[in-house]
Amino acid sequence: MSDEVIQQTKLWLGEHYNEGNGRSEFADKLKEECGVLGIFNVPDASTLSYYALHALQHRGEESAGICTVDTKEKNRFCYYRGLGLVKEVFDKEKLAELKGDRAIGHVRYPSSGEEDAASNIQPLIFRYRDGDLAVATNGSIINAGEIRTELEQQGSIFQTTSDTEVIAHLIARSSADFETAAKEALARLNGGFAVLIMTNDKLLAATDRHGFRPLVLGKVGSGFVFSSETCAFETIGATYVRDITPGELLILSDNELREERFAEAERQAMCAMEYIYFARPDSDINGINIHSARKRMGRMLAKESFVDADIVTGVPDSSISAAIGYAEQTGIPYELGLIKNKYTGRTFIQPSQQLREQGVKMKLSAVRKVVEGKRVVMIDDSIVRGTTSLRIVNLLREAGAIEVHVRITSPPFQNPCFYGIDTPERKDLIAARMTVEQIRREINADSLQFLTHQGCLDAVGSNEEVRNRGLCMACFDNDYPTEQQNEQMVTSNSK
């Protein structure tokens, strides 16, 4: 072993390990990889983290983790992570062991085909030459593979398959002071991410230079809170301060907040799916309330593609607001035609193939007395592969609906995402290989219409002065904000 490799291995003084089991997804829905939370100078930070992560549970149901700094014990790291929902991973005893007034927390979905979900549970925790280091991210680092290869050639030994780990290695290998090393590491990253980095005495928060992933700053008493969404603030009594801007780096140290930059902001491109699907209705992103934006999507959809019907129903939970907007615009009554079973959650029991095929019935039920004999307008946020849309349409038909008209509050989803949404390959996206009429027949609907590109932008109602009103719509229009992805898609589409 070379001296360089030996020196590199000395940077890591501890072990990284987790345990647990995975789960199977029945639904054909998009998955965002995670939600992040940071707390600084707030007593009993672990308990606040627990409740705040509950509020962010919709952003990741596979695993959860919390790392705290015990300021009364020489700023010692305390952490616990596991597979499962927040309430399954943590209990009163575990939280009591996580002492301190600062913390970072994380909820996560794994990527498609990931076999070692347990080892990738965040926050990732390391010991290196300058002490302890914890990192949690939301999103995807596009050039992580390239950086990983470079670092491995220089002697780095990776302990996970997570993109997030490259951030820790870049910091550890730098000869600069911690803050400079963090800036240099973040500047090397290409992609869509919100990141929290915690040491024994500092907490750093940053978003990528395009602002793909949301991250907000709040206050609790004299302390500070970072979160992927504002809904977590309501849960813990925090006051919203502002959104973190693209390329910005906030540094908390000794109860002082410093605002710096690791990169100049580039084309603003907040993920449109945050407004359409991912974020909770009671959250605000860049000053726009999610529920209100989705109601406007429903209203716009009604203007663009009205159909005469008896009732309007939304697919729970993300499409309820849009269904209300559609009903208000058309005057067609809104009804709870579909009910979500909120207690299916995770399962460690592998179902039979027959049950897999009928899996949507475990999550959704049609209300027969509401839809029977009715012409139904079914509102949903997106169609990915089309399999779940077919099952839901058939649920309504089996419950006695005489017509099912499907209206989607986004344009056709035709392109994969590289910025943190777990999407199929382009060939597996139904809208990339079928016309709207072909999709209608495939999902067994009487009619099908999508919200137009312009209708979606107008409904969100963000900044008119910037391209695409400051949204990333690449999954709909193939216009990727980062140059690498535009080149990649041009090459892929020309084959």
UniProtKB/TrEMBL annotation:
Record has Magnesium as a keyword: yes
Co-factor(s): Mg(2+); [4Fe-4S] cluster
Start and end residues of each Glutamine amidotransferase type-2 domain: 34-255
Top-level EC class as recorded in UniProt: transferase
Keyword field: 4Fe-4S, Glutamine amidotransferase, Glycosyltransferase, Iron, Iron-sulfur, Magnesium, Metal-binding, Purine biosynthesis, Transferase
Catalytic residues (positions): 34 (nucleophile)
Reaction catalysis annotation: 5-phospho-beta-D-ribosylamine + L-glutamate + diphosphate = 5-phospho-alpha-D-ribose 1-diphosphate + L-glutamine + H2O
Residues reported to bind [4Fe-4S] cluster: 271, 417, 472, 475
Identification of the protein by name: Amidophosphoribosyltransferase
Gene: purF
